[in-house]
């Protein structure tokens, strides 16, 4: 018995070691140091069979999106559910059933596995083939049906599930979650670096999802001129605000954009294409490689990657064009509704 | 209401943008411009719950192949089904339940992600390790149990499921489907560049599947002499004919082969090994890298890749040794029965 | 009928061709030449529907580990089962239900796809980014939630399932199984190169699994001094013994370690980190790259890889620092209980 209590103590101590991103600033609560985190963690390591059977029984529900799960079956709990594509392919993903009415399906995450890699293995949202003008689309994953990763590794690896192309949606929600934070903590609001959603049903105008939107606005090198871009959609904040969004990017970047938007397919001075400017709209100057993510297959040689040049003036340096460490070391989770 | 009608109009317009491969010749119908395509597409974006439940209920059937699904349960509809390996591993794939009596299981697709890549990331049917004589088998996927991809991405990425090694079959069927064409359109006959099957039960002589066949005929650099090859099996056409097969490869290649066959494990002048010559049998001259696919880990330096040297005289150039653009930009779907 | 008998004969002949690793020494029985192998193989190629339904019905059991499957449902047969993570993610893996009381969950395998690759594609347990001191953790898979591979390809590719981080365990079991041996033969004792397990519940002290253990002892370049290491745990042999363990590594390596242990996170002279020394504890001299597996992202340039420098004095050469061919061409299967 004493042994068990000692083990429990060791267990609690080891929580200290579960550091995810180092968070240098005091703006962000270190969620791993909260009592709520410790309690959830403690509960989670033991098997709760009642709960386990409950989540397994979710497999009897048939739907193509979390919105349909909420509407048809009144599912109201955040977590992992089963979805089916129109063709009958079964997969599992995370549903946010609470934010702004719920019904949000996680369809993808963009994760920078190494800010030093230049379109190398792991850069699935730009290119794994090296910086190469002969491959202007790079891996092409913004506009194909390839999938990768799993829902539980969405904060430690790139993730894309069939919902990305299969679901017909109206709005998007975006969560920036610190790398490696386990799924069971994602919905603690304090855990997020930034969270927002759109409300104007813009996806109806662009084919119903990002797969279709990026067919209209290809994420491709040399497809347009510097400053060309796709839609910039106003956002509603769920965690953070315009001012905190501004501060997440570098001081030099802040002069170029307006916060309060999500922008699709931006093109920079070198004619490189980026997929998403999260939280901002480029307005003057187009050094978008420092604050937009994803891309085609060719950039300035030192910039190719999933978070192209977020470390231009040193990683997490808060200097010049460098994005903050919080932003650089957080995965970008993309939801549809 | 007017809004909805306008959106519908935008939706229909955007069908134009769903171009897959550019098809320069008039031989091939552009399936995306047909009325049938537009109607299927329109229906598909809305969720039909009755249909969704039907395809999910397919999970109660237990079988190791589509042939068993057809025989035991009289399943007659083309589409995505659940299969189980002899060891109990569950997976999903596409069944062709109509061609020549049906019961065909999709077990793999060979997709060229970049004709410019030389055994780089994405060349899973040759090598992702660079052109390397120290790795004569390359990735070795023709004769191992590794799997990759998903059924819905089989025209946009390499695909291999457990059926490749688990199913004991007699015949093969091959579909060349334009890159990125969605699964729900694969069975439109006009969509295919080429389709054929064998009828002589040749796989009984080679262990029952490609996994076993390629153990007898290794897809390995330097394993044999120029001109050595495995079996060449006569085919029955389901779309196309001998003459259209000939025209799909380059003018110089046409002098070297006889159409109307599928040939396994060809060896070229440089002692490089290829896995499948689709639609043809090499007869005189062995520049098979221009019309055979898949391979070991070492080729002439400019040729290593899943479609080794289909672009020798310019991509889709219809010149010299270059295969046609239709062939080069189509995935090769492999079925067993 | 005669035809069928002939085919059967061809089928039996082809068993000869199913060579996996060449096994040069007489210490190891070539399992593929045994009568038991031939019989299992013969049975396996035909579909046994009763058996197929039985393994599919395992999906109704709900548990987080094979130990729970054995305890709650009295499952006693080795094979493939369904497990569910605490968050509800469903996956399949292999359960060893017999060794030392059973209840062992396969959570990972370490497979060397090419002893000549130097942290290239396929080196998921070290780095796929090249030998790079800027990426001291390499791919980081020893301490993240990424998963890859499938249970049936665990002897032909790297494998990691959610159990690696989700299961709270006490002991480990390790099987060295010749590359490419099919799952249906893994539990033939004679098939293994080496098999052992721990009995002292050491994982209770290190967070309950390798995911937590390697947070305390990071598999990272330059994280400690030569000779630093994590725990070395005594093992109980299930196949092999201390002497046979010694002989599996090179003559020079044998002077440096003591057999009869599994050791975690060893550091060599060049400050490179390795994850597991299987069967041994380094005692004097720290050329651990010749007998420990997995690693961070930076090694001596000629050594980076999943089995870092097992071929130092020629592959399978039994000379100097070279590990035996049996060891180098066997996958390392990791189980929890």
From TrEMBL, chains A, B, C:
The keyword Oxidoreductase does not apply. SUPFAM superfamilies: Fibrinogen C-terminal domain-like. GO terms for cellular component: extracellular space. Keywords: Calcium, Disulfide bond, Lectin, Metal-binding, Signal. GO terms for molecular function: metal ion binding; oligosaccharide binding. Residues 57-107 form the Fibrinogen C-terminal domain. It comes from the Eukaryota. PROSITE patterns: FIBRINOGEN_C_2 (PS51406). InterPro entries: Fibrinogen-like_C (IPR036056), Fibrinogen_a/b/g_C_1 (IPR014716), Fibrinogen_a/b/g_C_dom (IPR002181). The keyword Cell cycle does not apply. NCBIfam families: GGGWT_bact. This is Intelectin 3.
């Amino acid at each position: 018995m004493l042994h068990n209590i000692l083990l429990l103590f060791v267990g609690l101590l080891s929580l200290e070691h579960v550091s995810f991103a180092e968070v240098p600033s005091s703006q962000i609560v270190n969620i791993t140091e909260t009592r709520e985190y410790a309690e959830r963690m403690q509960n989670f390591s033991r098997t709760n069979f009642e709960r386990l059977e409950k989540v397994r029984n979710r497999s009897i529900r048939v739907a193509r999106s979390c919105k349909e799960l909420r509407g048809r079956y009144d599912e109201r709990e955040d977590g992992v559910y089963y979805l089916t594509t129109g063709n009958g392919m079964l997969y599992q993903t995370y549903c946010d059933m609470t934010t702004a009415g719920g019904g949000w399906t996680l369809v993808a995450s963009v994760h920078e596995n190494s800010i030093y890699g230049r379109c190398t293995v792991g850069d699935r949202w730009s290119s794994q083939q090296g910086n190469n003008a002969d491959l202007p689309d790079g891996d092409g994953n913004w506009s194909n049906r390839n999938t990768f990763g799993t829902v539980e590794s969405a904060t430690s690896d790139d993730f894309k599930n069939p919902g990305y192309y299969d679901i017909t949606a109206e709005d998007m929600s975006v969560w920036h979650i610190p790398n490696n934070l386990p799924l069971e903590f994602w919905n603690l609001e304090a855990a997020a670096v930034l969270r927002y959603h759109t409300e104007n049903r813009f996806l109806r105008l662009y084919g119903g999802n990002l797969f279709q939107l990026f067919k209209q606005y290809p994420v491709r090198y040399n497809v347009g001129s510097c400053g060309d871009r796709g839609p910039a959609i106003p956002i509603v904040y769920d965690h953070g605000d315009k001012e905190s969004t501004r501060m997440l990017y570098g001081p030099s970047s802040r002069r170029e954009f307006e916060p309060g938007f999500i922008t699709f397919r931006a093109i920079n001075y070198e004619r490189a294409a980026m997929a998403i400017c999260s939280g901002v709209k480029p307005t003057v100057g187009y050094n978008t490689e420092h604050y937009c993510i994803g891309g085609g297959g060719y950039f300035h040689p030192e910039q190719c990657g999933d978070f192209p040049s977020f470390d231009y003036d040193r990683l997490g340096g808060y200097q010049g064009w460098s994005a903050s460490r919080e932003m650089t070391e957080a995965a970008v989770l993309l939801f549809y509704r």
